[in-house]
């Protein structure tokens, strides 16, 4: 779940549906991994796709990136893809906290936390002042 949230969800979405800013912009669009089209593929086909990517699409090959951890990381992703049709709202909430964050996201979270803790909201989050 952690690896998928951090590396795959940018294009595929936490729920595997592909409804993301990046996913919508790709051609061809990432498949909805919850549907039969993906779920009926063999484990080996899913593994091969993750490792080698899909030519002429936005799906890169991750074999080199995963080689440091051996094959286990890729097989965990295959198992997670199998789980996507049954994913729970609790798991999706947990995944939101694992998604990559931009500096603006982090600054906004910090501002919200400071406000909730009784502080004054910052007006210029992320801006730098030069004297």
At a glance:
With 131 residues, this protein is mainly α.
How is the secondary structure organized here?
Blueprint: H1 2-12, H2 21-25, H3 36-39, H4 43-52, H5 63-66, H6 72-83, H7 89-96, H8 103-116
Helix pairs in contact: 4-6
Identify the overall geometry.
Answer: elongated
Structural class by secondary-structure content: mainly alpha
Estimated radius of gyration: 18 Å
Low-confidence segments, given as residue ranges, are none
Number of strands: 0
| Strand content range | under 5%
Percent helix, as a range, is 40-55%
**Distance linking N and C termini:** 46 Å
Note the total helix count.
Answer: 8
Major sheet details: none
What is the typical, i.e. mean, pLDDT? 86
The helix/strand order is: HHHHHHHH
What does this structure look like?
The protein is an all-alpha fold. The chain contains 8 helices and no strands. The chain has helices at 2-12, 21-25, 36-39, 43-52, 63-66, 72-83, 89-96, 103-116. Helix 4 (43-52) packs across helix 6 (72-83). It is elongated and about 55 Å long. The model has no long low-confidence stretch (mean pLDDT 86).
Keyphrases for this structure?
131 residues; mainly alpha; 8 helices; 0% strand
């Amino acid at each position: 779940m952690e690896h998928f949230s951090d590396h795959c969800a940018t294009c595929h979405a936490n729920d595997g549906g592909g409804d993301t800013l990046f996913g919508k912009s790709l051609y061809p669009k990432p498949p909805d991994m919850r549907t039969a089209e993906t779920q009926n593929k063999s484990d080996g086909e899913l593994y091969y796709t993750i490792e080698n990517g899909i030519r002429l699409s936005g799906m890169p090959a991750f074999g080199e990136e995963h080689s440091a951890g051996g094959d286990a990381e890729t097989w965990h992703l295959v198992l997670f893809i199998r789980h996507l049709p049954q994913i729970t709202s609790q798991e999706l909430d947990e995944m939101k906290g694992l998604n990559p964050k931009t500096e603006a996201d982090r600054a906004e979270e910090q501002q919200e936390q400071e406000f909730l803790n009784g502080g004054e909201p910052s007006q210029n989050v992320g801006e730098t002042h030069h004297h």
